[in-house]
Write a structure and sequence with these properties.
Largest sheet: 9 strands, mixed
Radius of gyration: 22 Å
CATH superfamily of the largest domain: tricorn interacting facor f3 domain
Number of helices: 8
CATH architecture of the largest domain: Sandwich
CATH class of the largest domain: Mainly Beta
Structural class: alpha+beta
Oligomer: single chain
Distance between the termini: 28 Å
Helix content: 10-25%
Number of strands: 25
């Protein structure tokens, strides 16, 4: 993520404790839990089902009003009498389950953040269902502790949509957990002259009628909800072709300077370079959304990163590398975010070296030169806590850990490790323990003490 364009952003921690398993998970019909499994954000996500697909029909007006119909295909993983979806700040008007009206409640009102659905017929574990939710309102705009906006952020000329870590619920009903990946279809209806960009590929030609245009997008690859987007603005499309004929679609705001997308011209070369590091590019297209409105960071939304303002070359490299490390290979829990940010920062260092900039070792040396008394060393990349999720240490100490590991196990083993990590775990979810185990397998060395010192100890590690 969220690579800050100005300063590192942090996110408000929710300190509500995770509740125990619901009765449904104990082998009898009962309500699915309204809380997820991540201790950093326990109110995000739910239990008792797995989503396979979201079909989102969105109608957006430039006054900030959003109306939507979400058609959600899911499979029950427990015997359920009711289940919950995350939805913040929007009001539900009707719910169908398998075409039949279902009971629903938004405890605490739309601000409560939950939509509890009671189907007429209880769900048996293993059964598949289609849930249709009609909703609308003016999306709330969450603000993290650093003052940065995330989720569905409205501006006078459109909206910039960047969800990390748990902002998808600001614009559609969702099981907002990184582990519940799904495919997506979008039909986004916007005022004529405005462009709507989502993940995946544009389906057909946008249709204009009665002063509005509908854009249809299809994302066929599994995607975590925090990586979805439906950004809306006055964008101009340019196209490129990447390795192996990969289509690249770049959307740049018309109000930005003519050279605002200059760094995007390097995307094909970057993809080829990172394929040499991480293996084949994992998705069916790539590109960018460059908006003139500011949220002061960039985000690796899957296949189409979002940039708040013109990105520089290093930022583009960082968000592109995330397509492998973060988007395809995604942490199970937010405490392991260094598997996203440390890896993407390291990839950025590799690219800068490739382009004649400082070597990776020089970048490591610059990080390690920080005195032991610097608060930088007190943040644990392997478990930073929600307030420090996007702290500098998550990025730079995480990247330095990888360079220290490279020195420890040697270049050949390290290169093998990176490629195996991204290819063997493609489209899945991982933990730091998984990475440690693979590093030990590839290197033939015991590395527990190394990782304890570098990512789990609040002091400067020895070299």
């Amino acid at each position: 993520m969220r690579r800050p364009l100005v300063a590192a952003a942090v996110t408000l921690a929710l300190t509500v404790p995770v509740v125990g398993a619901s009765p449904a998970l104990a082998g009898r019909f009962g309500p699915g839990s309204t809380q997820g499994t991540d201790p950093y954000f326990p109110q995000a996500g739910n239990s008792g089902y797995d989503v396979q697909h979201y079909g989102l029909g969105l109608h957006y007006d430039l006054d900030g009003r959003l109306d939507g119909t979400a058609v959600i295909t899911l499979t029950a993983t427990a015997d359920l009498s009711s289940f919950s979806l995350d939805l913040r700040g929007l009001t539900v008007s009707s719910v169908l389950v398998d075409t039949k009206p279902a009971g629903f409640d938004q405890p605490g009102g739309p601000a409560g953040g939950e939509l509890v659905i009671t189907p007429k017929k209880k769900f048996k574990a293993g059964s598949r269902h289609v849930v249709t939710v009609v909703y609308g309102g003016t999306p709330g705009q969450p603000v993290d502790q650093g003052g940065a906006l995330y989720g569905f952020v409205s501006f006078p000329d459109g909206a910039l949509v960047a969800n990390e870590p748990e902002g998808a619920s600001t614009w559609y009903p969702v099981n907002d957990l990184p582990t519940d990946k799904a495919t997506y279809d979008f039909a986004i209806d916007v005022p004529q002259g405005t462009v709507a960009v989502a993940n995946g590929e544009l389906v057909g030609t946008p249709v204009t009628a009665r002063g509005r245009t509908t854009f249809r997008w299809h994302a066929a690859d599994p995607m975590a909800s925090y990586l979805s987007t439906a950004s809306i603005g006055d964008y101009v499309l340019s196209t490129q072709t990447g390795p192996h004929g990969l289509p690249i679609y770049d959307y740049v705001d018309r109000d930005l300077p003519a050279d605002a997308g200059a760094a995007l011209a390097l995307e094909p070369e970057m993809i080829a370079f990172f394929e040499g590091v991480f293996g084949p590019y994992p998705f069916t297209s790539f590109g960018a959304i460059v908006d003139d409105d500011s949220v002061d960071y960039a985000l690796e939304t899957q296949t189409r990163p979002v940039y708040s303002g013109a990105p520089d070359e290093s930022t583009v490299a960082h968000e592109l590398a995330h397509q492998w490390v973060g988007d395809s290979v995604t942490p199970e829990q937010w405490k392991d975010i260094w598997l996203n940010e440390g890896f993407a920062t390291y990839a950025e260092w590799l690219w800068d070296e490739h382009r004649g900039g400082p070597t990776v070792q020089q970048r490591f040396d610059a990080v390690y030169a920080r005195p032991a008394s610097n608060g930088f060393w007190t943040v644990l990349p392997g478990d930073p806590g929600a307030p420090d999720l996007f702290a500098s240490a998550t990025y730079n100490r995480g990247a330095a850990t990888l360079q220290a590991l490279r020195v420890r196990i040697g270049d050949a083993a390290f290169a093998t490790l990176l490629k195996r990590w991204t290819t063997e775990n493609a489209y899945g979810n991982v933990t730091t323990a998984d990475f440690v185990a693979l590093a030990e397998q590839v290197s033939g060395r015991q590395l527990d003490d190394f990782f304890t010192a570098w990512i789990y100890t609040p002091t400067k590690p020895a070299r």
